Amino acid sequence: MSLAGGLLLALAAALALNVGFFVQHGATHTMLSLTPRRPIRSVRLLVTNRQWLIGYATGWVGWGLYIAALSLAPLSLVQAVAAGGVGVLAMLAHRLGTPLVRRERVGAWVAVGGLLLLGASLTSGAPASTARSASLLVATGVGAGLAALLVCFRARTGRPAAALGGAAGILFGVGDLATKGAVSGNGPVFIVVLGVCTALAFVLLQLAFQRGRVLETAGLSTLVNNIIPIAGGLFLFHEALPGGAAGVARLASFAAVVAGAVLLARAPGSPVVEQVDRDGPAAYDGSPSA
């Protein structure tokens, strides 16, 4: 019962987190330009915007549900359920006026199909999982380094919004590893790691929101964020797959939710030029960015 309860909490967390991302993106995209060079001004713009605060609070509700889910279920299963949230985000965006191209609609349905396959694979309970603290620290360090490289070379990628969203996703992903480590008793150091990674990811995601579409920024962030904990659950926490057809369905579900997120994260259209220090409205004309 605890496993089923954990996965239900994970689904509720995915809904809350992605609704929060969607609302924050809508608010941030219309603000004056946010920049880490003017942190007080940027924070003031955020906290004085009612729509952004609602999205931010919704995200915190989702985060609390996610931590509760991790205390009841293995990391790879919780994250696979959360991965279906990018499909929810896409459908929400479509319902509220953001047109989806055919590939994005297919991606949303593939991600939801992955959730169904995951449900079909739950024929037996999963054992409690643990990880070596040293391995977790190495994984978080490598992830932080990759995120830093993406930020430093975002202009050269031609897709600054995607680069910032990807960096945020990496930091959220290693933060999820730290979260599982903290709730699994690996030590208080992972609470500190979680706090640092989440704070940096938050800043990068807000900057990304001003430079691209919601699926290119929050969608790509969710994609990367999903891959890291799923892989971490299997290889760091040594979470065993069930045997037979259930094991095949579980692997297929992992592949489906990741494939769906990939289809959604590849935003069509022309690139948005990054303008970090503009004092006017954010550089966005409603058209998709590459």
Task: Supply the key terms.
mainly alpha; 0% strand
Structural class: mainly alpha
The helix/strand series, from N terminus to C terminus, equals HHHHHHHHHHHH
Strand tally is 0
Helix tally? Answer: 12
Mean pLDDT rating: 81
Question: Poorly predicted ranges (pLDDT <50, ≥5 residues)?
Answer: 267-290
Shape: globular
The fraction of residues assigned to DSSP E strands is under 5%
Percent helix range: over 70%
How large is the radius of gyration?
18 Å
- Span between N and C termini? 44 Å
Structure, described:
The chain has a domain at 75-265. With 290 residues, the chain is mostly helical. The longest helix has 27 residues, at 2-28. The protein has helices at 2-28, 39-47, 50-70, 75-83, 85-95, 102-120, 133-152, 154-157, 160-183, 189-209, 214-235, 244-265. The protein is 72% helix and 0% strand. Residues 267-290 have low confidence and may be disordered. The protein starts with a helix and ends in a 25-residue tail after the last helix. The protein contains twelve helices and no strands.
Brief overview, please?
The chain is mainly alpha-helical and 290 residues long. Helices cover 72% and strands 0% of the residues.
